[in-house]
Structure to design on (174 residues):
């Protein structure tokens, strides 16, 4: 009986999370059991945003939407940390930074820059293959539309995508 309980517990802890929601809920449950107030409060605040999105959508939102909610929460916390540092409140800034670091563990890994460049180059080549090259801004818009049609937004940093697309377009047409 002890062995069965141990195996059940071990297999449960070794199983990869099925989606971000279940992973968040499992971590909140674990943090509450271990009386880790910092982790449970941080994760419950994100879960409350997820539940609000569920109510707005009248259904459970998928993992990419949850990833974007977590990404926005990370951005809010890093901005708050910088404002706290500007106000000489390093204690509050440290707390916000710790929360942002904790939330980063729930995001899926981002696409590498090499993969991003490869995908963007293929898209740019396919859009400019006919010889009729649109203006730079129109081309950037077409590249973004095609890129995000192929790649999930939660797997890339949009700022990096924009920067790399502009660089690759300027290299091709300069």
């Amino acid at each position: 009986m002890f062995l069965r309980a141990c195996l059940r517990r071990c297999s449960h802890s070794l199983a990869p999370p099925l989606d971000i929601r279940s992973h968040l809920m499992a971590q909140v449950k674990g943090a509450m059991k271990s009386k880790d107030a910092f982790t449970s409060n941080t994760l419950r605040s994100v879960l409350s945003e997820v539940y609000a999105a569920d109510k707005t959508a009248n259904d459970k939102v998928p993992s990419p939407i949850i990833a974007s909610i977590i990404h926005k929460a990370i951005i809010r916390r890093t901005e708050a940390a910088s404002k706290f540092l500007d106000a000489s409140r390093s204690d509050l800034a440290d707390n916000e930074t710790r929360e942002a670091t904790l939330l980063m563990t729930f995001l899926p890994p981002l696409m590498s820059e090499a993969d991003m460049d490869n995908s963007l180059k293929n898209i740019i080549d396919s859009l400019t293959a006919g010889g009729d090259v649109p203006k730079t801004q129109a081309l950037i818009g077409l590249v973004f539309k095609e890129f995000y049609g192929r790649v999930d937004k939660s797997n890339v940093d949009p700022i990096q995508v924009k920067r790399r697309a502009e660089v690759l377009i300027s290299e091709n047409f300069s």
